[in-house]
Records
---
Amino acid sequence: DAGVIQSPRHEVTEMGQEVTLRCKPISGHNSLFWYRQTMMRGLELLIYFNNNVPIDDSGMPEDRFSAKMPNASFSTLKIQPSEPRDSAVYFCASSFARGPEETQYFGPGTRLLVL
Amino acid sequence: AQSVSQHNHHVILSEAASLELGCNYSYGGTVNLFWYVQYPGQHLQLLLKYFSGDPLVKGIKGFEAEFIKSKFSFNLRKPSVQWSDTAEYFCAVNARGYQKVTFGTGTKLQVIP
C-alpha cells in the first residue's frame, strides 16, 4: 500500500514567492494533518482536517499560510508570500479516525528553503 | 492541554549497550501514547503505540515501552542497540477522544560502532 505522498520533496524559492505544498493521504483515511519541523521549535501542528473539513487551524502561523482539502485524497498548504523564516520541513500525516484509538502516519516531508 | 517532556536531548551509546529513553507527559485523563523514530533525512515512522491493556508494549526493531500511569511515563527501551538505530526518537501523546497529538522535543541517539 502506498503511504502518505507529498510533493515536491524539495523546494527552493525566493522571498516573496508563492509556495504550494501537496499531500495525498493514505487511501481510506479520513483525517489529515499538516506539521512543520524546525530545529528551534521542533514539530508543530499547523492544521488538521476531518472528512475534508478544517477542524483546528490554531497552529497556522499567520495569514500568509492557508490550507485546503478539496477532496478526500488531496490537500494543499500554501504560503503567500513566503519568507526566509518559513524555511523548514513540512510533513503531512493522515489517520483513520474511528474512535479513541487513532494512529497518524507521516509522509516523507517537503524540505522548503526560502532565500 | 497535554504536554510531553523528553529529558535526554542527546544520547551516545556504543553498539550492544542497552537503551532507555525517558518520556513523561502531563495530562490528568486517559491518554494514547506513541514513540516515533526519524532516521536522518527521513520522515517519522511509528515504532510502537499504547492505547489500553498491557502496559508493556512491543514495537518494531526490538523496541519496547512501558506505560507507568502513576509516574505519567512511557519510557522506550531496547536491550542492545545497533549502529542502525542512530536516529531521533519522539514521544507523543494525545488525550483519548481528541485527535490533536503533542510531540516531545525529541532525543537524538547516536550509536557508535
Note: Residues 22 and 76 of chain A are 5 Å apart (CA to CA).
---
Amino acid sequence: EDKVVQSPLSLVVHEGDTVTLNCSYEVTNFRSLLWYKQEKKAPTFLFMLTSSGIEKKSGRLSSILDKKELFSILNITATQTGDSAIYLCAVNQGGKLIFGQGTELSVKP
Amino acid sequence: KAGVTQTPRYLIKTRGQQVTLSCSPISGHRSVSWYQQTPGQGLQFLFEYFSETQINKGNFPGRFSGRQFSNSRSEMNVSTLELGDSALYLCASSLLVNTEAFFGQGTRLTVV
C-alpha cells in the first residue's frame, strides 16, 4: 500500500530555534515530492523535489530528497512565530498527490 | 496573477441533498485536482482532470463526481450527501500533470 509518513506529528520550539521535519515514503510510480505549509485553509506550496541530493532553498527554509532511502527533510532555521503551521509532505504519483499526516509546528516567542 | 478560486467558501446542506462546488484554476493551468480534507483522514485525493478528461480517480464512491470545462474550470458534485461528507474540499491547479500543484482556499462543507 502506498504511504507517506511524517515525523514528528507535532513539535513545539522557541523563536530562533532550527527545526528539521521528516518525510518518508513508499509510493509506486514516484514522480516528485512536494512540501506545503497549511495555516488556515489553503496549503501553500513550498518546494517540489525530483532529484536526489539537490537542496532547494527559499529564505530560511530548505529541503532535500534522498530517493535511495526514500525520504526528504524540510529544515527551517531561525524560526519565527509566523512559521507556526502544519507542514505537509506529499508524493506525486503520476498526477495524484499522496499526503502524509502533517507535522504541526508551534513556535513560541 | 490570480490564484486558484473556489466557490462557495462555506456551505451547509442536509443529508440526502446534493451539492456542486466550483474551482477556477490559475490562468493557463490545464490540470485540476480535487481533495477532501478531514481531521481523521487528512488530505485524500478525489480525482484529477486534464483537458476536460478525468485522468485519475481516488477511492471514493460514485456519489462523488466531477467535470472540467474547455476553459479549465472544474466542478465537483456530491449526491445523496451523508454526514461523513462534511469536510474541507480543496482544489489544486497545475500547469501540466506532474508540475507544482497550487491549492485554492477550499470550500468548507457541513452536512447536517
Note: The longest strand of chain B covers residues 42-50.
---
Amino acid sequence: DAGVIQSPRHEVTEMGQEVTLRCKPISGHDYLFWYRQTMMRGLELLIYFNNNVPIDDSGMPEDRFSAKMPNASFSTLKIQPSEPRDSAVYFCASSPGTSGQETQYFGPGTRLLVL
Amino acid sequence: KNQVEQSPQSLIILEGKNCTLQCNYTVSPFSNLRWYKQDTGRGPVSLTIMTFSENTKSNGRYTATLDADTKQSSLHITASQLSDSASYICVVSAGYGNNRLAFGKGNQVVVIP
C-alpha cells in the first residue's frame, strides 16, 4: 500500500485566494483525520470523518475552512479566503478504527504558505 | 494552559547514548497515550499506544512508560542512532474516540556523532 497520499506537497498562494488540499486515505480505513501543525500551536485536530461522514469538526478554526469526503478514497480541505495566519503544514491521517488502540497513519503533509 | 506538557523542549545527545523524554498531562478522563516520532519534513509515525492498564510498552529501542496515577509518561531511547534525530510528540486521548485529543508540542532530539 502506498500509504496516505496528500497533494500538493507545497502550496504558495496570496491572501484572499482559495486553497484546496487533497487526501487519499489508506484503502480499507474507515476514519480520516485532518490536522494542522504550526511551531506555535503544535499539532491540532481540525476534523475527522467516519465512513465519509463528518463526526467532529469542532477543531475547524472558522467558517473559511471546510472539509468534504465524497467517497471512501478521497477528501478535501478547503480554505476560502486564505489568510497569512493559515500558513502551516496540513496533515491527513487515516485509521481502521477509533477504539483507542488503532494506529493513525499520517500522510507527508501539505506545506501551505499564504503571502 | 496546555493539557500535555513535554520536557525537555530540545535535547542534544551523543550517538550511542540513552535519553529519556517526559510527558505530563492533565487530561481526564484518560483513555490512552501515544508517542509519535516525526522526522523533519514528514508526517508523524506512531511508536507506542498505551491504555490505562499498561505500564510499559516497547518498540525496538524505544520504551514508553506510563504512570496513570501521577499522569506521567516517559519515552526512553536506548543506544541512540543518528536516525533518532526527530521530534517526539506525546498525544493523550480523553475518553472514547479521537475527538478529544490533547497534543504536546514535542521534544526535539538531535543525535550527533
Note: The first strand of chain B starts at residue 4 and ends at 7.
